[in-house]
Design brief:
- The structure holds two protein chains of two kinds.
- In chain A, helix 6 runs parallel beside helix 7 and helix 10 crosses helix 11.
- Chain A starts with 5 loop residues before the first strand and ends with a helix.
- Chain A has 13 helices and 13 strands.
- In chain A, the strands form three sheets. Chain A has an eight-stranded parallel barrel with strand order 1-2-3-4-9-10-11-13, surrounded by eight helices.
- Helix content of chain A is 38%, strand content 16%.
- Helix content of chain B is 38%, strand content 15%.
- The chains are: A alpha/beta, B alpha/beta.
- Chain B: Keywords: Flavoprotein, FMN, Monooxygenase, Oxidoreductase.
Chain lengths: 396, 456
């Protein structure tokens, strides 16, 4: 039996190419309007895309990693991703909604209830892309912590002390958020007229988390949501984030540029899982690909060159930039799923054109009829997890 | 000469996590499933309400060291549910309570600007402050804020948020393909703020939203609270619903506006009210009585008493007399409620005197002082009363609080709203494309700034 290939699509601004907003298909004046996001989500849902991710950050976009620029020729400004996902939720019925929510400067308590509420509003289709913020200028927006400018060499080597601190904090945030999600047992609300009790307080549980950066008492103000635990995801490029994913996430996005890297990265993810002693279901692993699709290879190349010319330089990305035909992309996806990947996250170079191309030409190559259930977890083959506190009681 | 009567403004309060909400009523459904919020929002929009309102939860309440279990409990994240409701409504304002203590200006300002974009200009923010360590235990900041600094922080927070919202020029996004210019030159002004509460700088990352910034709502009642309101608030969510008190409050607060260069119309005062309707006054009175009995059950009566006395009174008979001793003013056995009875000894003495004079048991006394419905009568009688408050400048309208979720508003919309429309004091249709600020008849922020400049 072949496994079902997971197809995710990553939404960000006008697309992942910095000049995407100048493409004739783009709607650059509408990037901050509700209809733009609802239209994209509906297009993806109709095509059978499994889940959408939405980018976010606590500062302006920049062409320079970890710092600011003054460019006015690229998209600048973005809306809060969790709220975009919340808006999309009632207008869709099957697609998973996975906003990026930063762990560094935000309140874990609000993060937990925000994602639970998204899970209620989407009737079980919420996920979370965990993201840290190491940029000194973003820390200045909050004024509580001072970060030195990122030491890019140390980040590349994987031994940046700041990176370690941020990912340790992210691990703590996910831990406390997961505890808050389980803070209400599923049958905590009893409405027992005989004893005049609305809720059984024995089925409510304090998180009682104390970490290096924060502590949270709990319980959540929000009852356990339809999925119990919304799907936790992370984008990872190296050891520290691989280990965060292995410790804390259900699904990881990685960025191989060729078949060789695809194999080695998968190996690193599995190695990270054993190092941290991950139990239960292994991580789902999706490969990120920036996609620009046209009917022939030369048309695709020409389209990319046109965008690059408008941008003033060839676009660069942490992920593979694939400019080619839908057929060639499908072959690439098949090759990587054969290696053991669960699927891909496609980053359309041009929204809306490449999302439409993906919908029309790529998705039909994969069997979409067999998506089980109505929640995101069910769709990706995850169980609804038992409540940790209920389990403890049963075991006791 | 005829003049247009003053128009009534109404907000719809999603039933709260307190004993006003009668969870064992046959009409009560889930208070947390999205369907409840959707029904409530659609009903309020059908009733042409100015806005719907959601309170915020920061921690589950505790009584005598345990999570309080008698009232409805469990609610959503305010911002997320409002953003979802933006997708299923077109006209109604979306207003939520959000703490200025347990949020940071940059993040909250961008979330509110996002909500305003996603709702095409229908966002509002009820600014609240809290300072106690009980709520703080769920947040990074903990509970360090001094009680007296609450409005200092709120005021600095709102001023900073406004600076962020104003930092993008209205026409910043050019998105001109031909010239390759996405942002206009100098479109985003860097901000830099150094104050007792916040020391931040940088650049905001959300373009100016349709309203510029959300409608600012405020509920505080102290002198500091009223000054804050005169400075920043565009709507006051007031607790003064008894006519004479309401009129006095209205005069006091509106009287503070002129000194700040603001007009009477630039601030709306909307007290929270409950209602009980009937075909006759007698029937309405019966329903009000039944609601009160459901809201103040025997255990709830004792809980309210314990909140005042500060000690365990579970051995008392709710149908018996009040305790003969005075409360210990230092004792407190309840956490997470807004302080309802600040001077416990005085409250207790007054209650005891009333209970002795009128022969009221504990439960009857609690119903009398804390459980009464505001408007009791026929639909036309209630509409007439609402109209009287507004014409005689006791309020600009009301925040309507139903007793069940999500159907508690249905009857008001079906029976009272047509009466108000009939009287010519309430809209029959929304103005197409109107922002919340316009629906409320409030001046645009730029006009406010102009006004202040002219005076200053």
């Amino acid at each position: 039996m072949t496994r079902r290939t997971t197809i995710a699509v990553a939404l960000d601004g006008a697309g992942w190419h910095p000049a995407a907003w100048r493409d004739p298909s783009a709607r650059p004046a509408e990037l901050f309007s509700p209809d733009y996001w609802i239209d994209l989500a509906r297009t993806a849902e109709r095509a059978g895309v499994d889940l959408l991710t939405i980018e976010d950050a606590l500062g302006l976009q920049s062409s320079a990693f970890g710092t600011t620029d003054d460019r006015t020729d690229e998209v600048r400004g973005r809306l809060d991703a969790l709220l975009i996902a919340s808006l999309i939720a009632p207008t869709t019925s099957r697609i998973g909604l996975v906003p990026t929510v930063t762990t560094t400067h935000t309140e874990p308590f609000h993060v937990a209830t925000g994602l639970q509420t998204l899970d209620f509003a989407s009737r079980g289709r919420a996920g979370w892309r965990v993201q840290v913020s190491g940029a000194a200028h973003e820390a200045r927006h909050f004024g509580r912590r001072t970060f030195a400018p990122l030491d890019l060499e140390a980040v590349r080597r994987g031994d940046s002390a700041l990176l370690r601190e941020l990912f340790d904090e992210a691990r703590d945030v996910v831990e406390v958020v997961r505890r808050l999600w389980d803070g209400w047992e599923d049958d905590a609300i009893i409405r027992d007229a005989a004893t005049a009790r609305f809720v059984d307080r024995d089925k409510l549980h304090y998180a009682d988390f104390e970490g290096a950066q924060f502590s949270v008492k709990g319980p959540s103000i929000t009852p356990r949501s339809p999925q119990g635990q919304p799907l936790v995801t992370a984008l990872a490029h190296q050891t520290i984030p691989y280990e965060l994913a292995a410790t804390s996430a259900d699904l990881v996005f990685v960025t191989p540029h060729d078949d060789g890297q695809a194999s080695s990265i998968l190996g690193e993810v599995r190695a990270a899982e054993s190092r941290v002693g991950r139990e239960g279901r292994p991580l789902s692993v999706l490969a990120d690909i920036v996609v620009l699709l046209e009917a022939t290879p030369s048309l695709a190349t020409a389209a990319l060159e046109r965008l690059d010319a408008e941008h003033g330089a060839p676009a660069t990305s942490d992920a593979l930039i694939f400019a080619g035909t839908p057929e060639a992309l499908v072959e690439r996806i098949d090759a990587w799923t054969d290696l053991g990947y669960d699927g891909v996250r496609l980053r359309p170079a041009r929204l809306t054109r490449d999302l439409e191309q993906v919908a029309e030409w790529v998705l039909p190559a994969f069997d979409r009829a067999d998506a089980p259930g109505t929640t995101l977890r069910e769709r990706l083959g995850f169980e609804r997890p038992a409540n940790r506190y209920t389990v403890e009681e049963t075991a006791a | 000469m005829t003049t247009t009567p003053r128009q009534v403004h109404l907000a719809a309060h999603f039933p709260g996590v307190n004993n006003t909400t009668v969870w064992n009523d046959p009409l009560q459904r889930s208070q947390i499933d999205f369907a409840a919020f959707e029904h409530f929002a659609r009903t309020a929009e059908r009733g042409r309400f100015d806005y719907l309102f959601l309170a915020e939860g920061l921690r589950l309440r505790e009584h005598k060291g345990l999570i309080h279990d008698l009232d409805v409990v469990g609610r959503p994240n305010t911002l997320a549910v409002l953003a979802a409701l933006a997708a299923v409504t077109r006209h109604i304002g979306l207003v939520g309570t959000l703490s200025a203590t347990f949020n940071e200006p940059y993040e909250l300002a961008r979330q509110l600007a996002t909500l305003d974009h996603l709702s095409n200009g229908r966002a509002g923010w009820n600014v609240v402050t809290s300072s106690d360590a009980f709520h703080g235990a769920n947040f990074r900041r903990g509970g360090f804020l001094d009680h007296g600094d609450r409005y200092t922080r709120a005021s600095e927070f709102v001023s900073l948020a406004k600076e962020l919202w104003d930092s993008w020029s209205p026409d910043a996004v050019v998105a001109d393909r031909a010239s390759g210019r996405f942002l206009a030159e100098e479109a985003v002004t860097p901000f830099s703020h150094r104050g007792p509460q916040f020391d931040v700088d940088g650049r905001f990352n959300v373009p100016r939203s349709p309203q510029g910034y959300p409608v600012i709502v405020q509920a505080g009642d102290s002198a500091d609270g009223r000054d804050f309101a005169a400075e920043h608030a565009e709507v006051i969510f007031s607790r003064h619903s008894v006519f004479d008190e309401a009129q006095q409050f209205y005069r006091d607060v509106k009287g503070r506006l002129a000194g700040r260069g603001r007009t009477e119309d630039s601030l709306k005062i909307l007290p929270a009210v409950t209602f009980a309707l009937g075909d006759t006054d007698d029937e309405a009175a019966e329903r009000a009585r039944a609601d009160a009995l459901a809201q103040v059950g025997p255990k709830t009566a004792i809980t309210v008493l314990e909140q005042v006395w500060g000690v365990d009174l579970s051995d008392r008979d709710p149908d018996g007399p009040l305790p003969e001793f005075d409360p210990d003013p230092e004792a407190s056995i309840t956490k997470g409620w807004a302080p309802r009875f600040p001077n416990a000894v005085k409250v207790a003495q007054a209650w005891r005197a009333q209970s002795e004079a009128e022969g009221l048991s504990i439960r009857e006394l609690v119903i009398t002082v804390a459980g009464r419905q505001s408007f009791i009568g026929t639909p036309s009688g209630v509409a007439a009363e609402i109209d009287r408050y507004v014409q005689e400048r006791a309020t600009d309208g009301f925040v309507i609080v139903g007793t069940t979720s999500p159907h508690g508003l249905d009857e008001f919309v079906e029976r009272v709203i047509p009466e108000l429309q009939e009287r010519g004091v309430y809209r029959s249709e929304y103005e197409e494309g109107a922002t919340l600020r316009r629906t409320l008849g409030l001046p645009e922020p730029t006009e406010v700034a102009e006004e202040v400049r002219r005076v200053g």
